[in-house]
Specification:
alpha+beta; elongated; 9 strands; 189 residues; 9-stranded mixed β-sheet
């Protein structure tokens, strides 16, 4: 059984896993050491807490990385995004692969955080106006920007990480044509 190995891979202590699963820490210790054999319900509870299937607890890790294809914009002026990009969906926990899109970045508005030539991956299901980096649809294609909410004034600003670009205050949040929140970027060397 690989319970301890999986727990350690995820950076969890026994106390963390006990808290996530609701299973007593001493019982987890006995399961990991092989003193106790888990019943089906215990295995299901642990698998759910670790967000894995039960068979992963018993099987050796696969050297095969699961790959999903997502729609891909080959540049920021691409309005259609008909190309496809292969990604490992496991790198984006909690996000459905069907909600992911990718964009090859050509502008420098988010440099040095996301630079020209990088691929930004964004979640189209997360369009709530909140702090973070987002992809916006514009008349010229798409653009990246950081939404900053002022807790004092309530002003919404679309900021650039590049000091050579000006930040813009947004008078009407309905004017923001958000395509999704950036959840990752791949740097190409």
């Amino acid at each position: 059984m690989r319970l301890k190995e999986i727990r350690l891979e995820r950076g969890l202590s026994q106390a963390d896993l006990a808290s996530l699963s609701g299973i007593d820490k001493s019982h987890l210790s006995r399961l990991e050491s092989g003193v106790r054999t888990p019943n089906y319900q215990t295995l299901k509870t642990l698998a759910d807490a670790l967000e894995i299937s039960i068979d992963v607890i018993f099987n050796e890790p696969s050297s095969i990385v699961p790959i999903t294809e997502i729609r891909y914009y080959d540049c920021q002026s691409d309005n259609i995004g008909n190309d496809m990009l292969a990604i490992d969906p496991g790198k984006f926990p909690g996000v459905r692969p069907a909600d992911l899109l990718a964009l090859d970045v050509s502008g420098d508005e988010m440099s040095p955080t996301i630079s020209p030539g990088d691929t930004a991956i964004f979640n189209t299901a997360d369009m709530a106006i909140q702090d973070g980096i987002f992809v916006f649809k514009t008349p010229n294609g798409v653009a990246l920007g950081r939404i900053v909410l002022s807790k004092i004034t309530g002003v919404i600003t679309v900021a650039s990480d590049n000091p050579n670009h000006r930040d813009q205050d947004v008078a009407d949040p309905g004017d923001l044509n958000i395509m999704g929140r950036v959840v990752g970027a791949q740097r190409h060397f």
